[in-house]
Design goal:
The protein is α/β, with parallel strands linked by helices and 415 residues long. It folds into two domains: 98 residues, Roll (Urease, subunit C, domain 1); 283 residues, Metal-dependent hydrolases (TIM Barrel). It is built from twelve helices and 17 strands. Strands 6, 7, 8, 9, 10, 11, 12, 13 and 14 form a nine-stranded parallel sheet that branches. Strands 1, 2, 3, 4, 5, 15, 16 and 17 form an eight-stranded mixed sheet that branches. Helix 8 packs across helix 10. The protein is globular. It binds zinc ion (ZN). This is Hydrolase. Pfam families: Amidohydro_1 (PF01979). InterPro entries: Amidohydro-rel (IPR006680), Metal-dep_hydrolase_composite (IPR011059), Metal_Hydrolase (IPR032466), Metallo-dep_Hydrolase (IPR051781).
Length: 415
């Protein structure tokens, strides 16, 4: 290379580097100073968190902020910082597309309330993907105070959809709600779900164990998760667990594994303790998360879910906190996720720390995302800050000070 060419090259490299460092210099740095920061086991230590745009850049346990001159400082002395909460089972868009206008305002209000209650991510377990994609986009671009949204496409057998569509205005299959039979080209079915923006397949109802295995295999090949109901009919919970799905929803449906005669949807058999342990250990070995949804279970008098969840926790099965609650806030204005959390501590043997891990780290695992769920360098700046310690008293989760989702601050307080 000639000298002149070399100089030009050097000039170009310098320009690019300067441009790069200048962009870097312009990135917004915010420091959350002097709070109690929870680690992945929910032990807390006094320190500060440095956020750069939407990521956690640094965490330090000294008073020395000199490393970041010009940073915006938010003093959180005496407050507690945990990862943002995750509801692993919501339904944000079950209304038909035609009714959208009517429900939009209501749902936007619910999404906003979720953010202020500390929920930074939700997993939607089937709904209209046109509406969900819209909310998801609005949330990603911070056009709406809303949690990050991940959603599923619903796969079920003809018996389920025939029954369902008798009452529905939306006729026929869509990429997000597909009838699956032996004749289905699974590659196309999963590709369509993926094209509709789903990141998981909800294995819903009326499917054989063979078909479930095919779905799980193809979903995995295309980088999608498999989120199943615990009982799918005719497939049993053991069939579902054997298919190595990523999560199984509804602890109260687990007793369908203990039928001795013909499976009957309307009649849940009694719990067989020996068989229950066998199934739960299978779930544990296959790393399947139990999306227990006890809040909706108890409201429908399906109290067996609590017994199942308690035993699952004792045996070391991971349990996520999902509500499956269609009306996100009731009149008492308490976030339904808190009610699910409360059942887990009160009736299922979870310590406060256990349940906080369920509502954050396990929640992220249930969705199949690794960029959130714990406070660590490089993770998303998804945080929930409370005025008092939730590990000490779980009710303190309702004593919120600030939610941060991908670096954006949501607070009703003056800072
Ligand atoms: Zn559901």
């Amino acid at each position: 290379m000639k000298k002149k060419q070399l100089l030009i090259c050097l000039f170009l490299v310098c320009t690019i580097l300067m441009g790069y460092s200048q962009t870097k210099g312009n990135l917004k740095i915010t420091i959350l100073k002097n709070g109690f920061i929870f680690d992945d086991k929910f032990d807390s230590k006094k320190g500060s968190i440095v956020m750069e745009e939407d990521k956690i850049k640094d965490i330090f346990y000294t008073d020395d902020l000199a490393k970041y001159p010009g940073a915006t400082i938010i003093d959180i002395t005496g407050k507690y910082v945990m990862p943002g909460l995750i509801d692993s089972h919501v339904h944000l868009a079950t209304a038909s597309y035609q009714d959208r206008e009517k429900y939009n305002k209501y749902m936007q209000d619910q999404l906003s309330k979720m953010i202020y209650a500390g929920i930074t991510t939700v997993r939607d377990m089937t709904g209209n993907a046109i509406i969900l994609a819209d909310y998801k986009r609005a949330s990603n671009f911070n056009q709406l105070p809303a949690p990050s949204i991940f959603y599923a496409a619903q796969f079920g057998g003809p018996a389920y959809f025939d029954m369902e569509r008798k009452f529905s205005k939306d006729k026929g299959d869509t990429p997000w709600a597909q009838t699956i039979t032996e004749q289905t080209d699974m590659k196309i079915a999963v590709a369509e779900a993926k094209g509709a923006g789903a990141t998981g397949i909800k294995i819903y109802s009326d499917l054989t164990s063979d078909l479930i295995e095919k779905i799980v295999k193809e979903a995995k090949l295309q980088g999608l998760q498999s989120w199943s109901h615990a009982a799918v009919f005719p497939a049993t919970p053991t069939d579902v667990a054997n298919a190595r799905v990523n999560s199984m929803s509804h602890a109260f449906d687990i007793p369908f594994d203990f039928v001795t005669e013909k499976m009957n949807r309307s009649k849940r058999p009694a719990i067989d303790e020996k068989k229950l342990d066998k199934l739960l250990l299978l779930m544990k070995n296959n790393n399947i998360i139990l999306d227990a949804t006890n809040y909706i279970g108890n409201n429908n008098k399906l109290y067996a879910g609590v017994t199942v969840t308690k035993r699952a926790h004792e045996l070391g099965v991971k349990v996520s906190t999902g509500t499956d609650w269609p009306y996100l806030f009731e009149k008492d204005n308490v976030v339904p996720l808190f009610k699910e959390i409360k059942i887990l501590t009160k009736d299922c043997g979870f310590t406060n720390k256990d349940v906080l891990i369920s509502a954050t780290k396990v929640g992220a695992e249930s969705i199949g995302v690794e960029d959130r769920g714990v406070i660590a360098i490089g993770k998303r700046a998804d945080l929930y800050i409370t005025n008092s310690d939730p590990a000490k008293q779980i009710e303190n989760l309702q004593d919120g000070f600030m939610t941060i989702k991908s670096g954006i601050i949501y607070t009703e307080n003056k800072i």
